[in-house]
Amino acid sequence: MNQRTAERTGGRAGQRVGERVGLLRTEAGSYLLLVGAAFRSAAQYRVSLVLYTLVEMAGAALDLATISIIFAHLSDLDGFSLAEVAFLYGTSALAFALAEAMAGPLDQLGWHIKEGRMDAVLIRPVSVLVQCATMDFSPQRLSRIVQPVAVLAVSVAALDVDWTPARVALLPAMIACGTLISISLAVGIAAVLFVAPDSSLAVSAVRQGSALATQYPLTVYGRRAALLMTVVLPIAFVNWQPALFVLDRPDPFGLPAFTRFLSLPVAVVCAAAAATAWRSGIRHYRGVGG
Prior knowledge:
Elements: H1 2-42, H2 46-73, H3 82-103, H4 109-114, H5 118-123, H6 128-134, H7 146-158, H8 165-190, H9 200-213, H10 223-232, H11 240-246, H12 263-284
Helix pairs in contact: 1-6, 3-7, 3-8, 8-9, 8-11, 8-12
């Protein structure tokens, strides 16, 4: 009897997992379909596409210019060399640029709510998150990826570290986990807009501030702020913690060594928390006049 019960329980669990995997595949297919439509639409206006792409690349260059100005007057930044800071910048900027390319339109959710578009979104047979992430999708945002990739490649070549198999394997993993954490941050804070649609500027400020904070060594912000960005808002796991292992540096704040390898579980937890916040936001949505 117990064996039959265990088999039934296992079968139901497997069925639920299969249903969720199928749902994820469906949502991914819908996302790619809508993104493809955005690319085809943007291709109809090639001059505008090129000009806007150049503007996006110029905007991304401002962050790198700031780092260049700092090192024009300092030989290092709180003990970190130019190559190390460039590595932090490249990994952080790439993760947030990928997240911006995939979920950037979520910043506009508050405007869509105030303009009454969300009621139509909720009744369509497509995931609300997929629709919100692709509304006003800008293919030009992909241009922001070019510079971080170039900076990361140069910094990797310039770093004076022993590139063991573990460090080589950790590099793409930290980019993937950092991107998932960044997307989760975007989804989680965008959920606030369902109940406070006038907070669009505050939501954008949190995302931009998080992206900027991870471009520099956390030691420049002090111990309390660094621990806050590690425990409360875990953006330190976007690049800082795994970067300490890659750069072969001890943790300046005395955190245990295994913390450097927690980006994946932290990313999973952040994704689950963001999904919960998003579903809660939809449940509390009351419409324009609610």
